[in-house]
Write a structure and sequence with these properties.
transmembrane, membrane, single chain, five-stranded mixed β-sheet, kinase activity
Length: about 350
Amino acid sequence: MNLSETWIVQQLEKRTNVHVFFALTLLVILLLIVLSSRYAIDLLPRALFIYCFILASVYAGRWLGWIWLVKRTLFAVVIASATLFSIFSAAGIYGWIFVSHYHSENFFVTIPLFTALFMTLGAGAKIARAVIKQQITEANLLRLHKESELNLLTSQLSPHFLFNTLNNIYGLAIQGDQQVPNYLVKLSTLLRYSVYVSNERLVPLGQEVDYLLNYIDFESIRIGKKLQLAVSVDPVNKALPVAPMLLVPFIENAFKHSKNATGQSVRIDIQLTSSDSSIDLFVRNSHKHASRNDEPDRSGGMGLQNARKRLALLYPDKYNLTLEDDNDYFTARLRIITS
């Protein structure tokens, strides 16, 4: 994102600042016009009326724009527009006659025209803001998706991970373990999901869960007997759409911490539940280390940073992520609202 796009996004997010700036600018312009006249005292009530009328009309138009963006129903917009236009036109006509003490038939034409103009400007500004923000969000998603494709392959299925996995499978084969063919199938599934399915914007939660379970199996082999693992994936709405490989970084982070653990055992708890419109993930892992100076970055490194960015873009205002770190455990809690 370049500097101009960054500035636009920042201004779009600062709603209060924009509204205050608009109101103050309009007030200053009207006051300058009034104060430049020798009839300033007589014109001041009219200027204040015009100021309130313009603000009310513009924000009524913004409300109409909001109705269109949310409802997408032409009938509702037409009814609301006609109602507000009639109310504001009548209020404008009689309000102007009251403050100016002057009556003209032209008021019945000019004031409705100004009402329609200001309401249209308000609605246009609301819709334009939403369109620009959506376009920037989609551009960011596309950029982040392209950047993360390689990152996902090199983090979740890095050459180091594949090397250790193949070595572990080889060791099991030498021991005559009957699960070797099953592990080879799981490894093939992991590769296929990472290379092909991860390119999709959304996938069924059931596919993501299968990937997570296969990933956990291979990491469990790597750690060995000192791992105390508790996994609960029930109940899960398998048809619920979710961004692919969005949950993996939180589980990957738990296993990464285990690499530097010096205790006799490593404890990892993973719980995944879902409803018709939400996904809840709980991951907790022990992280007792020999030296506090040698500890990994508990913020989760690039994996969790990328996950945060994807959550903010894919589920704005629809997710809650909390990370807790005490002397013994690192805990991640994530809730995603999918609807």
